[in-house]
Specification:
formyl-coa transferase, domain 3, alpha/beta, 6-stranded parallel sheet, 15% strand, 3-stranded antiparallel sheet, Rossmann fold, 14 strands
């Protein structure tokens, strides 16, 4: 039995954060019903690249869910949803604060008809505060939290993050964690709750050391100068002779000693506490004298925390992902094609055996769930 079997989730969210959160719940056995606005549904359906009628991203994030198409502003719409609202265990919404209340779907209204409901509001800046109504996206939260200031060097423009850190790490994951906590507390108390997930707030756990140093010691971390942001030769990225890169994370002394031995760093430079800049320069010269393939060979099987920076194609082709079954789950598109399903952080212990699952056409479940 899957851990969330028998749990029904009403998903009013769109795009990435909420749908990824409910995908993880679905992979753990929950029945997830997307509530979409006709005639186009979740905006993500229209994104490129397309696989059949809908976008590849929509297919990936909505595997195994059902879909209801309903105009929530239309008279009688809430009455049509009432059987679902009374019986739901979880509701996920991603509107700006106040929207669900204006629709008659706010937590206070639904608590009266379903006191066991775990209601999750996923927003950019939280439901309260001066920026609660402000529009923003992932890049804004990464910028405003201070994270983006730490990925620039020597006054250069900060690097554009290659992943959606806030949407996933500060949005979807905290939403799942808190929904599960809400369900656990409901088991004990019999009562649901209203969860307030702010992506901007949840960027700060990524900065736990900067929070401690800045607010506790009044020492503010600087870009490229901290132990894990480029300030240490032990934890850095180095260019090879063929213009590729290796990532070195030899923080512990035992790894650092082994690393220095293999690259034949001069003995006078191995104590990086004496002159960090000189040691860094020595490592730059040593790594730059050979190709990425050379370093791949000499560090093979060596515990020194050294990796060649892989391209996406190289990374996804690595046999370790096949051995671990990461891409064993498949999603079937509405034109009959198959592709790997979006990997989720749900252990296989809690999932069904690997197989092929489709994603919902817009409104395909109207006749199953909407009251006449």
């Amino acid at each position: 039995m899957q851990p969330l079997e028998g749990i029904r989730v009403l998903d009013f969210s769109t795009l990435l954060p909420g749908p990824l959160a409910t995908l993880m719940l679905a992979e753990a056995g929950a029945e997830v019903i997307k509530i979409e606005r006709p005639p186009v549904g979740d905006e993500l359906r229209s994104y490129e690249p397309k696989i059949g009628r809908d976008s590849l991203m929509f297919a990936q994030l909505n595997r195994g869910k059902r879909s209801i198409a309903i105009d929530l502003k239309k008279p009688g719409a809430i009455n049509q949803l009432m059987p679902l609202l009374r019986a739901a265990d979880v509701l996920m919404e991603q509107f700006r604060p106040g929207v669900m209340e204006r629709l008659g779907l706010g937590y206070e209204a639904l608590r009266d008809i379903n006191p066991k409901l775990v209601y999750c509001s996923l927003t950019g800046y939280g439901r309260t505060g001066p920026k609660a109504d402000k529009a923003a996206h992932d890049l804004n939260y990464v910028a405003e939290s201070g994270v983006l200031s730490l990925v620039s060097r020597e006054g250069r423009t900060p690097a554009m993050p290659p992943i959606l850190i806030a949407d996933i790490g500060a949005g979807a994951y905290p939403a799942v964690i808190n929904v599960l906590l809400g369900l656990q507390r409901r088991t004990a108390s019999g009562r649901g709750c209203h969860i307030d997930v702010s992506m901007n707030d949840n960027m700060l756990p990524f900065l736990y050391s900067a929070v401690g140093e800045g607010l506790g010691l009044q020492r503010w971390q600087q870009p490229g100068q901290e132990q894990v942001t480029g300030g240490s030769p032990r934890y850095n990225i180095y260019r090879t002779s063929d213009d590729r890169f290796i990532a070195v994370a030899a923080l512990e002394q035992k790894f650092w000693v082994k690393f220095c031995e293999i690259i034949q760093l001069p003995q006078t430079l191995r104590d990086d506490s004496i002159n960090c800049a000189e040691t860094l320069g020595g490592v730059v010269r040593a790594i730059g004298a050979h190709s990425a393939d050379h370093w791949q060979r000499v560090f093979e099987g060596v515990d020194a925390c050294v990796s060649v920076v892989a391209t996406l194609e190289e990374a996804f082709a690595n046999s370790r992902y096949q051995d671990r079954g990461v891409f064993a789950y498949k999603v079937m598109t509405n034109n009959g094609q198959f592709m790997p399903a979006a990997p989720v952080s749900v252990d296989r212990t809690f999932r069904l055996p690997a197989g092929v699952t489709g994603y919902p056409a817009l409104g395909e479940a109207n006749s199953n769930f909407l009251a006449d």
